[in-house]
Amino acid sequence: PALSITLPVGVPMQIAPGVSTTMPVRVVPGDDQIAQGSPTLWLQRTPAAPFEPLPLSNVVGDDYLATFPPLLCSDTPRFYLSAQPVEGAMVRLPASAPASAFSTRVGVSEIGTLLATDFTAGLPAGWSATGLWHITTACAPAGTCDSGNTAYFGQDATCNFNLPTRASGVLRSPSLTLPVLQTGENILLKFCSALDTEYPNGAYGDADQAQVWFVHSTGASPLVWFTDHSTALLQTLDLSPHAGRTGRLEWRFDSIDTYMNSFRGWHVDNIVVTGPALACTDPPNPCPADFNHDGALDFFDYDDFVRCFEGSACPPGSSADFDADSAVDFFDYDVFVVAFEAGC
After folding, report:
1. Which of 57, 70, 205, 280 is the most buried if burial means most Cβ atoms within 10 Å?
2. Residue 212: how many CB atoms within 10 A of its CB?
3. pLDDT at 83
4. What's residue 189's pLDDT?
5. Are 189 and 271 in contact (CB under 8 A)?
């Protein structure tokens, strides 16, 4: 067998800003031997930057650690790995690197709000409603999880969905992209719901269907078929099976027939979708003279500061206003030189 490179725990989905991060790597020599010191992580911080070589550290046997240096929120890291056998050609992962490379994000996962509305100001932009769905305060159900305006499938004048014809309609959310999940994360849809049809509480049948769907580019999936609950209740549905997809939510009501439709209908309110979101705040630079944030104080920092001071592009996270007095002048140059010569 030839030399091989694998990632035992996969590619990190994100890297926290401002701290070094390690990634396990396995380099198996096969029938050859690994050239001393050749296992390397090649890191590209931004699209305009070159790939920089970072040697892997051997842990034991075939197991190594790749260490990512502190990165900034503005970085968009791409990377690949390589190892040189004593005989034969260099091996890379991915095999076509650097033309192709792995990517990750800089930041930390927090629970964020992906979609939220309480219909206070009517039907929000991006939402749509068909059939008897509309925004109203009429025919309010008992319960405490809704307030004020609600989305209602029914008629305000009669507080029912009794029509001469079959009554149906869809309340549609705007399009939303659900994030990719890591272990232990989930995406939840919560909303207030009150459903009153011809069936008693806790029951449902083939007529008077009330369902929530997730409609995406490759199909549509029902999330739940509701039984009656005439008092407003908080409902929680798991959207995690659709992680990574872009689609919309639909509240679908259908009376199926024209019989026994003199019931209140469906109220929906306080819709919230939560899931992991990427948050990023650069920590204070412990060494301000490390102007390019590469973890090393050297001539490149001096050169980058001079270019920035003279009006060229500054490294992400750095400013020519080095003394932070809101003016770029000789004092910034002087303060930088003092910091550089002092070793930070």
Report:
1. 70
2. 20
3. 97
4. 98
5. yes
The pLDDT, as a whole number, for residue 319 is 85
Return d(Cα 208, Cα 225) in angstroms, integer. Answer: 11
Residue 202: its pLDDT value, please? 85
CA angle centred on 114, ends 113 and 116, rounded to 5°: 75
C-alpha distances (whole Å) from 80 to each of 29, 91, 93, 308 are 18, 11, 6, 30
Tokens at 256, concatenated: 């199926």
**Would you state the pLDDT for residue 184?**
85
pLDDT at 259: 92
The single residue listed with the structure tokens 């197991």 is 63
Q: For residue 240, give Cα distances in angstroms to 3, 12, 245, 270, 271.
A: 38, 20, 10, 20, 17
- Nearest residue to 109 via CA among 182, 52, 50: 182
**Cα–chain center distance at 18:** 20
Query: Which value, in Å, is the radius of gyration of the alpha carbons in the chain?
Result: 29
Q: Which two tokens mark 255? A: 């009376």
- Helix 299-309 vs helix 330-342: crossing angle, to nearest 10: 170
Neighbours of 216 (CB within 10 A): 17
Beta strand pairing call for 229-238 and 168-172 = unpaired
Residue ranges in the chain modelled with pLDDT below 70: 146-147
Q: In the chain, which residue ranges form alpha helices assigned H by DSSP?
A: 299-309, 330-342
Question: What does the block give as tokens for 233?
Answer: 């209740």
Question: With left for phi above 0 and alpha for psi between -120 and 50, is residue 258 left, alpha or beta?
Answer: alpha
